[in-house]
Structure formats: structure tokens, C-alpha cells
């Protein structure tokens, strides 16, 4: 299963399987290489978070000796915007008088 978090821009992939054998995420975003994206077993599920560019990606899960599940991951256009309070603290942290901040 794939889910995109619009608040962070991360794609989260999850797969239900036994914790006994490692699970790898494969897809056209990594050239279908079967040993590069090992998933983590967290809370009874295999999970992996990736930051992917905007687009449509085909993926599957490699478990034991074959591919299982998978589907299409739709990643929308995303622009990271830091929180306003973080930017305000950055402005206040400079006391040298040489930095000027433009607010739109």
C-alpha cells in the first residue's frame, strides 16, 4: 500500500508479512533492483518512507522468493514550506545586522 503525506511530502509504503524474512520495496523509481530498499518492520507491518519526485510509479514488494502486492503510486507536485514560526526564529537569531529578510 502507498500513501502520500501532503504535510511532509513523504511517500509511505506498507506491507503485511511475517517479520521472519526481510521485505524489499522495488519499482520503477529504483530500476526494480531487489536489494536496495529494505523495509523496516514497525508496529506489526513492513514500512518504508521515501521522498519521490512528482509522478506515477509502479511498485511491488519482494518477499522471500517472489514479488507480491504493489500497484501504482501517485505522487502529486509538492513544495516544502517551512513553518512560519521557524522562519521568524531564524530572523531573530541573526544579530550581526548584515542579513536582510524579505517577506512576501
| C-alpha geometry | elongated
**Overall mean pLDDT:** 83
Total strands: the figure is 7
Low-confidence stretches: none
Q: Helix and strand string, N-terminal first?
A: EEEEEEEH
What percentage of residues falls in helices of 4 or more residues?
Answer: under 10%
What strand order characterises the main sheet? Answer: 1-2-5-4
Cα Rg: 19 Å
Report the sheet with the most strands, covering strand number, pairing sense and barrel closure.
Answer: 4 strands, antiparallel
- Briefly note the CATH topology name: Immunoglobulin-like
CATH class: Mainly Beta
Assigned CATH architecture: Sandwich
What percentage of amino acids are in beta strands? 35-45%
Distance between the termini: 39 Å
Observed structural traits:
104 residues, mainly beta, Immunoglobulin-like, 4-stranded antiparallel sheet, 3-stranded antiparallel sheet, 1 helix, 7 strands, elongated
Helix-strand layout with pairing:
Elements: E1 2-4, E2 11-15, E3 23-27, E4 40-42, E5 45-50, E6 55-63, E7 66-75, H1 84-93
Structure description:
There is one protein chain. This protein is mainly β. It has one helix at residues 84-93, and strands spanning 2-4, 11-15, 23-27, 40-42, 45-50, 55-63, 66-75. The chain starts with a strand and ends in an 11-residue tail after the last helix.
Amino acid at each position: 500500500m502507498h500513501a502520500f503525506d501532503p504535510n511532509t511530502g513523504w511517500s509511505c509504503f506498507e506491507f503485511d508479512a511475517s517479520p521472519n524474512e526481510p521485505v524489499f520495496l522495488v519499482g520503477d523509481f529504483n530500476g526494480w533492483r531487489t536489494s536496495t530498499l529494505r523495509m523496516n518492520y514497525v508496529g506489526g507491518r513492513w514500512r518504508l518512507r521515501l521522498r519521490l519526485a512528482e509522478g506515477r510509479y509502479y511498485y511491488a514488494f519482494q518477499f522471500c522468493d517472489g514479488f507480491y502486492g504493489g500497484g501504482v503510486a501517485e505522487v502529486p507536485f509538492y513544495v516544502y514550506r517551512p513553518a512560519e514560526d521557524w522562519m521568524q526564529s531564524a530572523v531573530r537569531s541573526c544579530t550581526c545586522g548584515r542579513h536582510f529578510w524579505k517577506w512576501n
